[in-house]
Amino acid sequence: MFTKILTTAATLVGFSSVSYAGAANALLECVSDSGKTKLVADIPGDYSSAAVSINVEGKELHWINSAREGEIIYSKPQEQYPNYELATISSVVSISRKVATLQVVDKKYEFNKITLIAYPETIKGKTADATFRATLSTKDPRAENKYLYDVPVTCKYGYSI
Q1: CA angle centred on 88, ends 82 and 75, rounded to 5°
Q2: What is the H or E stretch that residue 84 is in?
Q3: Is 132 a domain residue?
Q4: I want to staple 38 with a disulfide (CB 3.0 to 4.6 A). Which of 55, 101, 133, 134 is the partner?
Q5: Any idea of the CA torsion for 31, 34, 37, 38, to the nearest 10 degrees?
């Protein structure tokens, strides 16, 4: 009987840990070698209000995820996130598998605003605290219709519960 109770308790704790960890916020911060280009992405575990900002020499652009546009519109994003454009934000990060990507695509799925791809051999650390080198292609906030391609960046990735 004691073994059955202990097994049930361990299972419930295991499920609650998995559920809780799945909702953790991930923070991705990347800086170019020159320090002039900075990317910050705040990605909640439910992806409903992921936000990405790019800063190049003090000029900024910001995006918020439109995957759940109805919920975001209902919550008045212009008040919560002033100066943010709606976009589709997707991220795949598995530190143990040496994978880290981030993509921001405009609302009409016409143009990539940001593409970040890590060099797998540079991914070091644990899921909650990792670093890696990556290449960043981004819309340039300093000029209309201009893009920066293959900017080498150093990134920090982690999450908190």
Answers
A1: 40
A2: none
A3: yes
A4: 55
A5: 20
For 119-124, the CB contacts below 8 A with 24+ separation are 123/95, 123/98, 123/99
76 assigned to some structural domain? yes
Closest Cα to residue 93, out of 110, 112, 118? 118
Q: How do residues 132-153 score in pLDDT, each as one tens digit? A: 999 999 999 999 889 999 999 9
Instruction: Say how far apart CA 98 and CA 93 lie, in whole Å.
Output: 8
Is 11 within the bounds of a domain?
no
pLDDT digits (tens, 9 = 90+) for 15-60: 222 223 445 788 999 999 999 999 999 877 665 668 899 999 999 9
The answer as to whether 1 is a domain residue is no
- Domain hosting 122: range is 24-160
Count other Cβ atoms within 10 Å, centred on residue 83.
Answer: 9
CATH number (domain holding residue 139): 2.40.128
| Total number of domains constituting the chain | 1
**Is the Cβ–Cβ distance between 54 and 83 less than 8 Å?**
no
pTM to 2 decimal places: 0.76
| Residue 141 to residue 138: CA distance in whole angstroms | 9
